[in-house]
Design a protein that fits this description.
Strand order of the largest sheet of chain A: 8-11-7-12
Radius of gyration of chain C: 25 Å
Subcellular location (chain B): Cell membrane
Membrane topology (chain B): Multi-pass membrane protein
Organism (chain B): Paenibacillus aquistagni
Strand content of chain A: 5-15%
Oligomer: heterotrimer
Radius of gyration of chain A: 26 Å
Strand content of chain C: under 5%
Shape of chain A: globular
CATH architecture of the largest domain in chain C: Orthogonal Bundle
CATH topology of the largest domain in chain A: D-Maltodextrin-Binding Protein, domain 2
Chains: A alpha/beta, B mainly alpha, C mainly alpha
Number of strands of chain A: 15
Number of strands of chain C: 0
Largest sheet of chain C: none
Family (chain B): Belongs to the binding-protein-dependent transport system permease family.
Keywords (chain B): Cell membrane, Membrane, Transmembrane, Transmembrane helix, Transport
Order of helices and strands of chain C: HHHHHHHHHHHHHHH
Structural class of chain C: mainly alpha
Chain lengths: ~550, ~300, ~290
């Protein structure tokens, strides 16, 4: 072989690899570019919500998942063998294929890789920031025709339960780019949960003020409420995500009139970011005092939610701020471990003579479903949502059970009646007050809650019946307390638009800065005086721009 | 690359003689390696164009807009940039220094042990962590340094307050460096020991006759004897001053210690795979590669100058 | 050199002994501790009462582990990976190292080839482009994604190349006189005399494959295909996730798992800890045969 052929070899192979990498960059976006306008859906597709396709339609999805929520689920069920999808295939001839399934904490990077390489699934569940990015990059399929024509009346009723306000957020130039699933905003309201048996044992009242709460927390820490002779309990449940979803510090902040990571109205009617306000600083200082007194877990900053749930279940902690649903999970598991354990719900304590006012979001968005641009069957996705709504009806109740491999939290898209818990509360309580044996309701939540309440009240229910009763039905239970908050003073998180331009770009790093500083102040590794410096740099690093954009939005909304 | 091939005029392949074997089989043997390298090492390099684009996945590399050095400007103006650069340098440099010194001291101490089986045992134990993955070691480190782990029990028994090693920005760097030295010290120790064994024993005997003590022998014979390998290892590690240990840090760090432990690799990872800032992440990665290549070239040149060592 | 030790020498020996003992223990104690924790009751482990001996001894964690499908499934993936990956790597490394060990006088293009390979040690396309190439070549979610892209380890290749080069050239001459071709030269002469170097590279390759974890996270589409170390990393990582979804929250129903976690980490380390003392001499020999670490 002489040098010329050698050179040819090198050049040839380089070209080959160039070609390959170009393919790598392009191959994955089949019709996105060629597809200019919205093409209309084939007219031979039946508009009946449960119309079955004559030929199998495939929908690809991805999932980052944990365990099935219901412990009765057979252990060999995976997202791919979820009975919902088998039923879906059977009834509508829609086949779901998972491009990948990973543990939930790997989801983010897996999804980024998919986005980077243009390897998007047909149906995606995303957040606001991702939605903005996809919208700007024109990656989303128009769902308006699919929704108008194919959504079942039930589904439409749920999606437009707020008069279409949420749905309109996802309309762009006459196109509908997402199918949102939202819930009653009061489901995010904060209350607190306390170990009732511990309170009784130590002769303590349910605290009404923050000072009382502090005393209770101290007693739970130092007076051995579980009576095992070891100093192994602490006061307030907390974990590294201070402002997140459950067992976090939101309730504590709200008690002290601080609303971090929320947009609240100041006295001039402008929106300000709660994390930059002096009340937040005061709350952080107070948390720092609690921390140094040992009322918080010393290592909360390393523990994620499952660790703190572990502590609750194991009976290590007696107070948790949070939402109404705790009895259904994980407080019921605490009772499984310790039959004496009992919990009581209470409204946020008062501070400086002022009632604690919870924050209520303008919108409680649970999931945003979008379809990849160029996917041929956007209506199939809507039909999948129809199907889920259908499956919740009474006639399927015998079949659709965790024992039979139905795992609802692995099924997407699912849209709920945003007000079904409120409906269940009124219906079931009315039925119970009338001493009815059967409940006559079309709301599956009511039917299930009624069954469990009956069982629990007759004394033969198990802890999951207790959980459902305490969560949804009991007047002094989770929802029972939470619904009373509507009639009290509360603060609204005024911003509910999709992410603004600077938010998309900077919010992650700003939040990171916020989380870092807050955690450090609580743990005492940074003095609270750093807070003012933080506010300055928050503004400088994009916070001010975001505030301007948010106010701009607010004026024009 | 092709220059080297052109240094000689083209020659027609000579008919095979008994002494001259055709090089064709040699090219043939290289084909599998060349293909794998082309596809999986050179192929991705085309992705570097991302660093000069505002990369939009749907548009691909050909359709995305070219922005010149904008992404580089962006990263140089990032508020974390200098902190991260500094973290990278300080962690990597300390790892290199201690990674060279500690094994050296160990080797010298081990040299003074007469019994062979003791040397073997120590060597086995010291070398062990080198073979375990960072996954395993991170698990061990978390366990040992947790608030109710053995180290803190020990501290508590001495009457001090427990220390949150994994969440304290000052301690955490120490743990990164310490655990890296711990993992790697067996390797360099063995290199040193081999070099020590290679020293002519007559030198020691001569020194002993001259009345030099053990200490003097170490200073005047052992150390000069292994100086070349020390210099060699030191220069070669110059190339890795921007490698502070991606896997190790990724497994061990948390937001509490970003300030002191976030390094280029972890930041690039988060920018690319968490925040989806593909282009700036690629620009940062490219910046690092270029600096590394310069450093590596310098170090290999120096290694060649000082110790006459050539890697190929 | 057996002269009666001086008093200062005795003192030195004692201090030296203590120091070296500590260092030795540093290598082993963490793993003994891990073992002790995994054999203790979970409550004792969580309370931090365990040091080097199990407290409230129990096999529970291991019994539970023996039923844990995920662990054994990923163990099997690791075994496959090590097996396939090592064979492939060794083949490529040997086939590549040999031609490049020929002198420029014999093999003119040698230097160009060497540069071609060596450049890849310092320059890479980065994570995302690499992912794209692996995806477009269809390796994603297969065991090949873990073994092919890194099959030609340039460091190992250079090590072997140098070893080949240092073998006496008169062997070549003799063989070529006999009319032997390159292949038989490589396999009949070079490989047999390079066994120490080959053994070392083999062991490093095996260990490398056994220990790799990050590629598993990137390239596998389901935990079913995670190798053991990737699976273990998901157990211990303090995950930097930003937000927690409803579903995630619902799924976090596991508790009392500290001993199980340590048991799995210990089992992940065990194969290497068990085999390594016997193979150590090969490593030592290989490292000192004139190669420098990569």
């Amino acid at each position: 072989m002489n040098k010329r052929t050698f050179k040819q070899l090198i050049v040839g192979t380089l070209l080959l690899s160039l070609a390959l990498s170009v393919i790598a960059g392009c191959a994955s976006k089949p019709d996105a570019s060629s597809d200019t306008g919205s093409k209309s859906i084939a007219s031979d597709i039946g508009t009946d919500p449960m119309w079955k396709y004559p030929e199998t339609v495939k929908v690809t999805q991805v999932i980052g998942h944990g365990k099935a929520e219901d412990p009765k689920t057979p252990s060999d069920i995976t997202p791919a063998t979820n009975a919902y999808y088998q039923k879906l295939k059977e009834m509508l001839n829609i086949e779901v294929e998972y491009l990948w399934m990973v543990p939930s904490d790997q989801y983010e990077q897996k999804f980024s890789l998919a986005v980077a390489s243009g390897d998007l699934p047909d149906l995606m569940t995303i957040g606001f920031e991702q939605y903005e990015k996809f919208k700007d990059e024109d990656q989303l399929e128009d769902l308006s025709e699919a929704y108008e024509k194919y959504a079942s009346p039930d589904l439409k009723a749920y999606v437009e339960a707020d008069g279409g306000k949420t749905l309109d957020m996802f309309r762009e130039d006459g196109k509908l780019l997402a199918l949102p699933s939202f819930e009653d905003p009061f489901m995010s309201a904060q209350i607190m949960w306390l170990r009732k048996d511990w309170l009784e044992k130590l002769n303590l009242e349910v605290p009404k003020t923050l000072e009382d709460l502090e005393k209770v927390a101290e007693a739970f820490t130092t007076q051995d409420p579980d009576g095992n002779g070891k100093a192994d309990t602490y006061g307030l449940a907390l974990h590294k995500d201070l402002i997140s979803w459950g067992f976090d510090a939101r309730g504590f902040f709200y008690t002290m009139g601080a609303y971090p990571k929320a947009w609240i109205k100041d006295k001039d009617g402008n929106l300000v970011a709660g994390e930059t306000k002096p009340e937040t600083k005061a709350a952080l200082e107070r948390l720092n005092q609690w921390y140094s007194k040992g009322l918080l877990d010393k290592e909360f900053a390393f523990k994620d939610m499952d660790k703190v749930v572990e502590d609750i279940v194991a009976g290590k902690v007696g107070i948790a701020f949070g939402e109404w649903w705790y009895p259904g999970w994980p407080l019921n598991m605490n009772r499984d471990q310790d039959p004496n354990a009992d919990w009581v719900a209470a409204v946020l304590p008062s501070f400086n003579g002022k009632e604690g006012e919870t924050l209520v979001p303008s919108q409680r968005m649970s999931r945003i479903y979008v379809v990849r641009k160029g996917y041929e069957h956007p209506e199939a996705v809507i039909k999948m949502a129809n199907f889920y709504t259908e499956m919740q009806k009474k006639e399927y109740a015998e079949d659709v059970k965790a024992e039979n491999g139905y795992v609802y939290n692995w099924y997407d898209p699912r849209v709920y009646n945003p007000y079904d818990f409120e409906q269940a509360f009124t219906e079931v309580n009315a039925a119970l007050d009338n001493k009815q044996e059967e409940i006559d309701s079309v709301n599956p939540t009511s039917v299930q809650a009624f069954k469990s309440s009956k069982k629990y009240l007759s004394g033969e229910g198990d802890n999951s019946d207790w959980g459902i009763y305490m969560r949804s039905i009991a007047k002094d239970g989770g929802w029972g307390i939470t619904r009373t908050l509507r009639d009290k003073a509360y603060v609204v998180d005024e911003f509910y638009g999709t992410a603004t331009e600077t938010m998309t770009e900077k919010k992650t790093s700003l939040n990171k800065m916020t989380d870092e500083l807050f955690t450090k102040i609580i743990m005492g590794s940074t003095p609270s005086s750093e807070f003012d410096k933080y506010v300055e740099s928050w503004k400088k690093l994009g916070g001010q721009d975001i505030t301007d954009e948010v106010n701009e939005w607010y004026k024009n909304k | 690359m092709s220059n080297t091939a052109q240094t000689q005029p083209a020659t027609v392949v000579k008919p095979r003689s008994s002494k001259r074997v055709s090089t064709f089989p040699l090219h043939l043997m290289l084909i599998p390696g060349v293909i794998v390298t082309l596809i999986y090492a050179y192929g991705p390099m085309f992705g570097l164009v991302m660093a000069f684009q505002k990369y939009v996945p749907t548009k691909g590399f050909l359709g995305s807009k070219w922005v010149g050095f904008k992404n580089f400007e962006y990263i140089f103006h990032m508020p974390d940039f200098y902190q991260v650069l500094w973290n990278t340098l300080i962690i990597a440099v300390l790892k290199i220094i201690f990674g060279l010194l500690v094994p050296l001291i160990l080797a010298l101490l081990l040299q003074e042990v007469a019994k062979n089986w003791i040397v073997r045992t120590i060597q086995t134990s010291v070398f062990l962590p080198y073979f375990l993955s960072w996954t395993i070691l991170a698990g061990v480190i978390f366990e040992i340094f947790s608030l109710n782990g053995p180290v803190n029990s020990l501290i508590a028994s001495m009457g001090s307050d427990p220390i949150m090693f994994m969440g304290d920005k000052n301690w955490f760097r120490g743990i990164l460096i310490g655990s890296d030295v711990w993992k790697g010290m067996g390797y360099n120790m063995i290199l040193y020991l081999a070099a020590i064994i290679g020293i002519n024993p007559n030198l020691y005997e001569a020194a002993e006759i001259d009345g030099a003590g053990r200490w003097k022998q170490v200073i005047h014979i052992t150390l000069p004897g292994i100086a070349p390998i020390i210099v060699l290892l030191a220069t070669l590690s110059l190339g890795s001053v921007l490698n502070a240990g991606f896997e190790q840090i990724l497994l061990l760090y948390n937001p509490l210690v970003y300030e002191s432990a976030d390094v280029i690799d972890t930041l690039v990872y988060r920018m690319g795979l968490i925040d989806q800032q593909f282009s700036p992440a690629a620009a940062f990665g490219l910046f690092k590669s270029v600096v590394s290549v310069v450093l590596v070239s310098i170090s290999y040149y120096m290694a060649y100058r000082f110790t006459n060592y050539r890697i190929f | 050199m057996h002269i009666k030790p001086s008093p200062s020498r005795v003192v030195f020996n004692i201090i030296n002994g203590i120091l070296l003992t500590i260092v030795t223990l540093l290598g082993v104690i963490p793993f003994i501790h891990l073992l002790a924790v995994s054999l203790s009751s979970n409550s004792a482990a969580v309370a931090g009462q365990v040091s080097l001996w199990p407290v409230e001894f129990t096999w529970d964690a291991y019994i539970y582990l023996s039923q844990k499908v995920e662990f054994f499934r990923s163990l099997w993936v690791s075994v496959q990976r090590v097996f396939i990956g090592t064979i492939l790597s060794m083949l490529l490394v040997i086939l590549t190292a040999y031609p490049l060990s020929r002198e420029t006088t014999v093999f003119k293009q040698r230097t160009a080839y060497v540069w071609f390979f060596v450049i890849t040690m310092f320059f890479g396309g980065g994570l995302i482009p690499t992912y794209m190439v692996i995806r477009s070549t269809g390796l994603l979610d297969t065991i090949w994604a873990l073994v092919i892209p890194g099959a030609l380890n340039v460091w190992n290749m250079v090590m072997l190349l140098n070893f080949f080069r240092n073998t006496p050239k008169d062997l070549d001459e003799a063989a070529l006189m006999d009319g032997a071709g390159h292949l038989s030269l490589l396999f009949r002469i070079y490989l047999p005399i390079s066994l120490p170097a080959i053994a070392t590279i083999l062991l490093f390759t095996i260990i490398g494959h056994w220990n790799a974890w990050f590629d598993g996270i990137l390239y596998m589409n389901s935990p079913d295909n995670y190798p053991l170390q990737t699976y273990l990393s998901t157990l211990i990582s303090t995950s930097n996730r930003e937000s927690i979804s409803v579903d995630e929250l619902a799924s976090m129903a596991s508790y009392g798992e500290k001993t199980l976690r340590t048991a799995q980490i210990f089992m992940g380390a065990l194969p290497i800890m068990a085999v390594y003392p016997f193979l150590q001499q090969y490593f030592v020999k290989g490292i000192t045969v004139g190669s420098v670490k990569g």
